[in-house]
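User: I'm curious whether this sequence folds into something compact or stays loose and floppy. Could you predict its structure so I can see for myself?
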Amino acid sequence: MSDYSSLQDWLQEQTANRILVTLGQVEEILHFGLPNTARLRSQWWENNATHHVQANAWLNVGFHTEQVNLQNQTLVFVRT
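Assistant: Here's the prediction. I'll summarize afterward.
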């Protein structure tokens, strides 16, 4: 089971096609703090499961990330 399975489960339960979340909300869903790179590098949120194991959490349930805004600490999950 992935460390990010709780995010995957949460996304799977959502009915909206676009979900704006803060990085703090993601941490609440995960029950642990994100690594520093998630707050400093937008590449951490790329939709590439080969190089970013955390991306499986959203890609496996039909979402991808958009509008990663590290200054505002927000991103959007979009149903594909």
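Summary: The mean pLDDT is 96. The chain has one domain: 5-79.
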